[in-house]
Amino acid sequence: MVFLVTFALYMKNATSKAERTRQFIIEQTAPVFNTKGFAGTSLSDLTNATGLTKGSIYGNFENKDEVALAAFDYNFSQVVSYLRQCISEHSSSIERLLVYPRQYRNFLKIPFLQSGCPILNTATEADDTHPQLKKKVADALNTWKKSLVAEVKRGIQGGEIKPDTDATQIAQLMICIIEGAVMQAKVTRRQSDLNIAMDYLEQFIRNIKAT
């Protein structure tokens, strides 16, 4: 009986250690994948980022693909968590929607977004080259779109947003404006370009407010 308890504790600790190592690898390599992309990230990049050997990394992941998929999930979850925290500070649907232009206006100053939006970065590379990553991006976009649609519908039901507003259209246009602005700002590093787009998006959102 004592042996079984001891063995169970050993296995639990071993599993916990493996999980911690796996999470460490994901967190350390996620910024690398978002900056360099899947093809541009080498094994040396992974070992340099983690300080681990090739054997340690591939002892926790089957291959680079598996690390990249987990890294994308982590990068996307960081964006979602950050925005949710900002959104939770408001009760008004209009104000909750305005969180997007207000936060993306400063995306170049947000540490985990300085290398760009993980959705945009990954989509650009994986569109025709990596089906699994492409699906990850498609799912992420769908999640984002559903969230925006739900918020617009919430505003309509609460009488805050015009009743004839097409929630799906608003969500799609918001995503297009944000991602397009992020792409340009990332390339030019010009805050003025980003401000123009976010000013427009703020006005766009205010225009759907019920009078």
Shape: elongated
Number of domains: 1
Order of helices and strands: HHHHHHHHH
Can you tell me the residue ranges where pLDDT is under 50 for at least 5 consecutive residues? 7-11
Give the fraction of residues assigned to helices.
over 70%
- What's the CATH architecture? Orthogonal Bundle
Overall pLDDT level: 90
CATH level-4 homologous superfamily: Tetracycline Repressor, domain 2
Question: How many angstroms does the end-to-end distance come to?
Answer: 72 Å
Number of helices: 9
| Strand composition percent | under 5%
Number of DSSP strand runs? 0
CATH class, named: Mainly Alpha
**Radius of gyration, rounded?**
21 Å
Structural class: mainly alpha
Q: Report the sheet with the most strands, covering strand number, pairing sense and barrel closure.
A: none
Instruction: Report the CATH topology name.
Output: Tetracycline Repressor, domain 2
Folded structure, characterized:
The structure is a single chain. The chain is mainly alpha-helical. The chain has a single domain (about 1-205), classed as Tetracycline Repressor, domain 2. It contains 9 helices and no strands.
Which key features would you list for this structure?
about 210 residues, mainly alpha, Tetracycline Repressor, domain 2, about 0% strand
